[in-house]
Amino acid sequence: MRLAMVKLGVLGSGKGSNFAAILEGISSGQIPARVEIVMSDHANAGILELARSSGIPAETITEPRFKTRLSEDIEAAVAEKLKAAHVGLVVLAGYMRMVKAPLLEAFPHRMINIHPSLLPQFPGLDAWKQALEAGATETGCTVHYVDDGMDTGKIIAQERVPILPGDSPTSLHARIQAAEHRLLPRVVAELCSEISGL
Q1: Exposed (0-12), middle (13-18) or buried (19+): which is 70, by Cβ within 10 Å?
Q2: Helix (H, G, I), strand (E, B) or coil at 94
Q3: Coil, strand or helix: which one is 9?
Q4: Euclidean distance between CA atoms 150 and 192, whole angstroms
Q5: pLDDT tens digits, residue range 88-117?
Q6: Alpha-carbon span 58 to 51, nearest angstrom
Q7: Helices and strands (H, E) in the chain, number of each type
Q8: Within 10 Å of residue 84's Cβ, how many Cβ atoms?
Q9: What are the tens digits of pLDDT across the range 129-178?
Q10: Strand-strand pairing, 111-115 and 33-40
């Protein structure tokens, strides 16, 4: 029996390389889903242009008051737009703001994030730089459920990345991103299969 397509909502703040990996997974048949809406807190973010060029509705989230989170009313409006699109899973793909009650309550256990470290090590910004500065011998990436903490939600899956002698922040980050582009589509595919099979 063919699984029903799960509708995805994607939130991102940057160029959208993880979003591109999801689109590739969908087009190859790996992910039984379709992206219904993409939203970004940066009007000129590459993820919005990528969505528009792929024929996917893309919207800017305008937040004039805070830099690390959304005001409750604005986050509630984002939740309503995602619900109006009948989204079954929300993917944070390089979204750089904390998520709070309006979104968490709208999508309980249906919101995931990709983070560039082996959580719980090195949460927060520039995790690859944190790993280098700590003298770690390996790091990686983690897909986890989103809660109201800083990268504290339940871990779903991880991929390890060794830290090589002579690694710079740039070279290490590039290898972590390559791992992210493998891990995130795989987890999204597994979750979508579970959701559509419910």
Answers
A1: buried
A2: coil
A3: strand
A4: 25
A5: 999 999 999 999 999 999 999 999 999 999
A6: 6
A7: 6, 7
A8: 10
A9: 999 999 999 999 999 999 999 999 999 999 999 999 999 999 999 999 99
A10: unpaired
Alpha helices in 17-159 (DSSP H): 17-27, 46-53, 72-84, 101-106, 127-133
Token couple for 41:
């807190």
Q: Which of 98, 89, 105, 76 is nearest to 13 (CA)?
A: 98
How far from 1 is each of 7, 35, 183, 186, CA to CA, in Å? 19, 22, 26, 21
pTM score of the predicted model = 0.95
Average pLDDT score, the chain = 95
Residue 1 has pLDDT above 60, yes or no: no
Q: Which residues are known catalytic residues?
A: 115
Q: Which two tokens stand for residue 38?
A: 């993409």
Q: Supply 187's token pair.
A: 């987890």
